[in-house]
Write a structure and sequence with these properties.
heterodimer, A: alpha+beta, Butyryl-CoA Dehydrogenase, subunit A, domain 2, Butyryl-CoA Dehydrogenase, subunit A, domain 3, four-stranded antiparallel beta sheet, 11 helices, globular, B: alpha+beta, Butyryl-Coa Dehydrogenase, subunit A, domain 1, seven-stranded mixed beta sheet, about 50% helix
């Protein structure tokens, strides 16, 4: 049990720090419009790619640095410490491009991987539909083969970043006479292909991060199919497995900031930091968010020993999303009526806590709802039996 | 960074688990629970001594094996899994640790007797209801002689030596080392919620004692014990969950296994999350303890708060999952429920440790983030 950097890790951290300090003026921040932020993040991504810090764990062949998972974490820690947001490229580099590397042809990989690593091309994931969210195997979008092409029709929804993406990973039903999990096929599509229409969705938080995406007779060549026809479920699961490894990152304001804020917040004749109820609630929040962070270190240790990460890796988002919601509520409520003030000039909470409070419900749903994550833990980790599956084995056309 | 046990430690765990499964079945725990005359199991205690477990962390020059506290927490977790009814924490986490950290040359001569199992320790801080207070102490030492009443004291019935919190001649509360083998010591058994770990009232009248340390030592001992007890709690929590899962796979209602209902699934998934959170915080705690880090106060408090939650939740919901059978005396579920309560109160309540966690982070100014 050794929590300090190993000599190799310390050396890498120094190298990362030197690189980040040398590029101090290029570091992106959260300020500005989406367009401005995207522009700065793209430039920063290109600089990182040039210096081998873009996809640290990937093979050099794909623009990576052949580094360890621990190095990737150290780099991200150092970036975060300097206020660099983790934005825009997560879905592409975390989920789509690994799937491309696994399933696309050599030529396609040569064309697609490098521009994504450099931030020139952005990817989105077109899986969810109005009738297929938690139950992804219910997708209804259609893929019909016509000669060397496929014709795609249907509606996708909750597609983060579709409005600025160049490519998307798309799953559709190619054989409705097969049972639900069979008869699906996965493709990659160009988002500017004729017949694709992206409509932004306004979130309850006021933001516009995701979209509805309509496919009207979109034609894609057969070589954009990933995996065999009818094997799309496997491909989608491969992509989503990569998403799970990503989950559970630190969200919201830090423990130190929370304590500092509590000290400045009046409560009774003293401050919030003197209030027993608050101290207790803080402690419960702390052990859970800190516990998730520390659990990631256990996962990384397993990876750096060449072992498969244990099932504990699955608890991250389930814990952090809920804790973010409740700590944000607590901090806002503790301000009394002033907690309603959602103005970064006037509010002592900065706009961030209000943003977190309105954003947290979405995090509890996106990428696996709390309920689905509990089912996954219960069934895959604890080995509890599945509930009734009335649609199992039935052709999709005969299901509800 | 290497945030897990080593291969050697996993080997130690495997041996400990096999040994305890053979020597400490739940019937043995129940034996102590149901017997008013016994506050621990002397045969199991001797078994642990024979395995060298009382010598594990003691220095080699005093008859010990010189192993680390991380090795110790492997044993703590295994002892926790089987709810071992032995004075291990009192003797090793408190008495031995106190002497190793602050003992004089003479006091250190006690260490071989700890290693050989002759010496059993206890920590006597409390004097009544409420959380242990540094200031409200009536017991006092004059001319090297201790008088006063300490209660409740875990393992007070079987201990040979006590660490006692009492006022010195200048009225300052301090920790003293007292031999309980003395005519001025009267021990009275007190009924406990968890009779498998006995408690007692200790009445001292003119018992010779030696000072061993001040509030810093007490804090350090509590922090260390918080981490080690967290491993006992995690062991108990994991096993309580395993039993609930096994029952939920086997028991049917309304035509299917109860474990296939989401109400049960989600409850047990939550228990799993609590246990993993507790384990990760405890790993950080044991790192801070072994590395003698200045992060120990908040690392230890985080380990304790999360382990208290984990074992309580698992023990409580294991009974619920078992339904009526889980509420019977014959079922083992109440052994976990009782032990969870014992451990939650053993070194100050979860409430007190939540407060300590906040205070420790305030002191440390949140550098860990």
């Amino acid at each position: 049990m050794d929590f300090s950097d190993t000599p190799a890790e310390a050396e890498f951290r120094t190298r990362a720090q030197q690189f980040l300090d040398a590029h101090r003026d290029d570091l992106p921040s959260l300020a500005g419009s989406e367009e401005e932020r995207l522009e700065r993040q793209r430039k920063w991504q290109a600089i990182k790619a040039e210096h081998g810090f873009a996809c640290i764990t990937w093979d050099r062949e794909w623009g990576g640095a052949g580094g360890t998972a621990m190095e990737a974490v150290i780099f991200r820690e150092e970036e975060a410490r300097r206020g660099v947001p983790d934005a825009f490229f997560g879905i592409g580099l975390g989920l789509c491009i690994p799937t491309i590397i696994r399933y696309a042809s050599e030529d396609q990989k040569q064309q697609l991987v490098a521009p994504a690593v450099r931030g020139e091309q952005i990817w989105c994931q077109l899986f969810s539909e109005p009738a297929a969210g938690s139950d992804l195997a219910g997708v209804r979008a259609k893929a019909v083969r016509e000669g060397d092409e496929w014709v795609l029709n249907g509606q996708k929804v909750w597609t983060s970043g579709a409005h600025y993406s160049d490519f998307g990973l798309f799953i559709a039903r190619s054989d409705p006479d097969q049972p639900r999990h069979k008869g699906l096929t996965t493709f990659f599509v160009k988002m500017d292909a004729p017949g694709i229409e992206v409509r932004p969705i306004h979130q309850m938080s006021g933001g516009v991060e995701f979209n509805e995406v309509f496919f009207n007779d979109v034609r894609v060549p057969d070589d954009q199919r990933l995996g065999a026809a009818g094997e799309g479920w496997k491909v989608a699961i491969y992509a989503l497995m990569n998403e799970r490894v990503q989950g559970g990152k630190q969200r919201g304001i830090s423990a130190a900031e929370t304590i500092a804020l509590a000290r400045r917040t009046p409560a009774g004749d003293a401050t919030l930091a003197d209030d027993g109820a608050f101290r207790g609630a803080f402690a419960d929040w702390y052990i859970r968010t800190r516990g998730v962070q520390l659990t990631r270190y256990r996962t990384l240790t397993a990876m750096s020993r060449g072992q498969t990460p244990g099932p504990e890796a699955s608890i991250g988002k389930l814990v952090t999303a809920f804790e973010l919601q409740e700590m944000s509520r607590l901090l806002v409520e503790a301000q009394g009526l002033y907690g309603l003030v959602d103005d970064s000039e006037l509010s002592m909470l900065r706009a961030e806590v209000h943003h977190d409070l309105l954003h947290a419900p979405g995090i509890r749903i996106a990428g696996g709802t709390d309920e689905i994550l509990r089912n996954i833990i219960a069934e895959r980790v604890l080995g509890l039996p599945k509930g009734p599956q009335p649609e199992k084995g039935k052709p999709f056309t005969l299901t509800k | 960074m290497n945030f897990d046990f080593s291969e050697d430690q996993e080997t130690l765990r495997g041996e400990a688990r096999r040994f305890l499964e053979a020597r400490c079945p739940s019937t043995l725990v129940r034996g102590v629970l149901e017997d008013d005359e016994r506050s621990h199991d002397a045969t199991l205690w001797q078994d642990l001594v024979d395995q060298g477990w009382t010598a594990l962390t003691l220095p080699e020059e005093h008859g010990g094996l010189g192993m680390s506290r991380t090795d110790l927490c492997v044993l703590a977790e295994e002892l926790g899994r089987v709810l071992a009814p032995v004075p291990y924490a009192s003797t090793i986490y408190f008495l031995a640790e106190a002497i190793m950290l602050a003992g004089s040359a003479t006091q250190r001569e006690k260490l071989p007797a700890i290693a050989s199992g002759e010496c059993i320790g206890c920590l006597a801080i409390d004097e009544g209801a409420g959380e242990p207070s540094r200031k409200k102490v009536e017991a006092r030492v004059q001319n090297g002689l201790l008088s006063g009443i300490k209660q409740p004291v875990i393992d007070g019935l079987c201990a040979t030596d006590a660490l006692v919190w009492a006022r010195d001649e200048s009225e300052t509360p301090r920790l003293f080392l007292a031999s309980l083998v003395h005519e001025g010591v009267r021990r009275v058994a007190i009924d406990s919620l968890d009779p498998s770990r006995g408690i007692a009232r200790l009445e001292f009248s003119g018992v010779p004692v030696q000072p061993i340390g001040g509030p810093e030592l007490l804090d350090r001992l509590l922090d260390g014990a918080a981490v080690l007890l967290a491993f006992e709690q995690i062991g108990g929590a994991d096993r309580a969950l395993e039993q609930a899962v096994a029952f939920a796979k086997e028991r049917s209602a309304f035509g299917r296994e109860i474990g296939s209902y989401q109400a049960i699934k989600h409850k047990l998934a939550d228990a799993y999350v609590h246990n993993q959170i507790a384990r990760s915080n405890a790993y950080y705690g044991i790192w801070a303890l072994d590395a003698d880090s200045d992060e120990l106060p908040h690392a230890a408090a985080a380990a304790r708060v999360s382990a208290c939650q984990a074992m309580w939740y698992a023990a409580r919901e294991s009974i619920q999952t078992h339904g009526g059978i889980g509420f019977t005396w014959e079922a083992d579920q109440h052994l976990f429920y009782r032990r969870a309560l014992h451990l939650n109160m053993a070194i100050g309540s979860p409430r007190m440790w939540r407060d300590r966690l906040f205070a420790a982070l305030e002191m440390h100014d949140g550098d860990s983030n």
